[in-house]
Design brief:
single chain; alpha/beta; Enolase-like, domain 1; 24 strands; FAD/NAD(P)-binding domain; 481 residues; five-stranded parallel beta sheet
């Protein structure tokens, strides 16, 4: 027998009522679902595609890192193994196998998310999730059939998709996005990358290491322009060593596919037209919030001028029981930011008082050397008029880095001029993606540069460079330079 009841004037049946419905199964969505289930709430996860994990696991973070690792192994074999005393003959790239390994890594991770849903008793509904009203979500399957499910609380985690320019036609053959770049059939001879941000530098690195010439066209005056400028300069120097060329302060005005050749036209700082010819163009100018088919208006959910979902500091939309997280809302488009927000919202719904410090969410570029940063950039501190100290230390002076032949890069520490509190840490070098966590912990507990400088770091390790940079920020006390 079915029980019926009213909530806010809407009729419901307990057959399909959930405490929490999450729309979107990327890192933010699936983590929100897991945490909600852990807190005892009956939870449903709605996913448009046949596999879970969203962009990150399927066509983003995970597959790109798999290819980055494979290409770095090849690059080392080709360029550093001989120095290590390892001689190879007949070295070549097996691109189909490289792509196949990447696909297997993706499958393992996606299957892992499916397991976690079962383990936590989260009901998974495959199909396009769209609002019928503020409590009802219609799930439309690929075959056109639809089912309505109802929730006391709903979390929108629909993520983002690659952005483009209005005059560029993405044909997915020669003019491609990051999705197509992850499944290339051949190594480009000359890859033109439009956009010098994280995605462009990572995927450009994959094919640059495999032998492609890579040309980067960037509108701003630095690559990875949202990070501290010193990192962009160091990364640019390093990437030039593997054949990158850069067209900074260039505005793209046209892209044309001529068959086996693609032509990019850009305007330089002097107003002159520059023409660049290659065989593939990767458009990587960023990503935009994805709300297609969501029918947000039916629930009373409002969008910003940029197409993002409008939320308050508690990540609530205009409708208090509907929340939004991850790439679909304001802030950095990072998987770990989405995860933190997923936990935040689940715990908020449960009546807890969670906390997110957005300043201390690190950013990482998985090139080699890796780039990682947390806190304020030097440019931001200058804009604030805040007095600060700078401590720098190069990996060239690290015994561990010399041993592994990874001497490019440095660590830069920014500390308050009077209190010595660490305000920002900016790293480029080996394994900085992992090293940055120490800086996050330090800043979360408001450590001073001297606090880190007085802590013992194992020798020889890359993390000693962070300690030395903190020593440098503390009365210029670095020991090994």
């Amino acid at each position: 027998m079915c029980t019926w009841y009213f909530v806010l004037g809407t009729l419901y049946t307990n057959k399909k009522m959930y405490d929490v419905i999450v729309i979107g199964s990327g890192p933010g969505g699936y983590v929100a679902a897991i945490r909600a289930a852990q807190l005892g709430m009956k939870t449903a996860l709605v996913e448009k595609y046949s596999t879970l994990g969203g962009t990150c696991l399927n066509v983003g973070c995970i597959p790109s890192k798999a290819l980055l690792d494979s290409s770095e192994h090849y690059h080392n074999a080709a360029h550093t193994f001989a120095t290590h005393g390892i001689d190879l003959k007949g070295l070549k790239v097996n691109l189909p196998q490289m792509i196949a390994r990447k696909d297997e890594v993706v499958t393992q991770n996606v299957d892992g998310i499916q397991f976690l849903m079962k383990k936590n008793k989260v009901d998974v509904h495959h199909g396009l999730g769209s609002f019928v009203d503020a409590h009802t979500v219609k799930v439309t399957k690929a075959d056109g059939s639809a089912t309505d499910i109802q929730g006391k609380n709903i979390i929108i985690a629909t993520g983002s998709k690659p952005a483009s320019l209005p005059f560029i036609t993405i044909d997915k053959k020669r003019i491609i996005t990051s999705t197509e770049a992850l499944k290339m059939k051949e190594i480009p001879k000359h890859l033109i990358v439009i956009g010098g941000g994280v995605i462009g530098m990572e995927l450009g690195s994959v094919y640059g290491r495999l032998g492609a010439k890579v040309s980067v066209v960037e509108y701003m005056d630095s690559i990875i322009p949202t990070m501290d400028k010193s990192l962009g300069k160091e990364l640019q120097k390093s990437l030039k060593k593997i054949g990158f060329e850069f067209y900074l302060k260039h505005k793209v005005t046209g892209v044309e596919n001529l068959g086996k050749e693609v032509v990019v036209k850009a305007e330089n700082a002097k107003g002159e037209t520059v023409e660049i010819k290659g065989d593939y163009v990767l458009v990587s100018i960023g990503r935009k919030a994805y709300t297609d088919g969501l029918n947000a208006a039916a629930a009373g959910v409002k969008l910003t001028e940029r197409g993002q979902i409008e939320v308050n500091d508690h990540l609530q939309t205009a409708v208090p029981h509907i929340y939004a997280i991850g790439d679909v809302v304001k802030g950095a488009m990072l998987a770990h930011k989405a995860e933190e927000e997923g936990v935040f919202v689940a715990e908020t719904i449960a009546g807890q008082k969670p906390h997110i410090n957005y300043l201390l969410i690190p950013g990482v570029v998985y090139t080699w050397p890796e780039v990682a940063a947390v806190g304020y950039t030097e440019e931001q501190l200058k804009e604030q008029g805040r007095a600060y100290k700078v401590g720098k230390f190069p990996f060239l002076a690290s015994g561990r880095a010399r041993a592994s032949m990874d001497t490019d890069g440095m660590v830069k520490v920014l500390a308050d001029a009077s209190t010595d509190e660490i305000l920002g840490v900016h790293m480029i070098g080996p394994r900085t993606a992992d090293m940055i966590a120490e800086a996050v912990v330090a800043m979360e507990f408001r450590a001073s540069a001297e606090d880190i400088a007085r802590m013992s770091h194992a020798h020889p390790t890359y993390t000693e460079v962070f300690k030395e940079a903190c020593l440098a920020a503390t009365d210029n006390r670095a020991l090994h330079i």
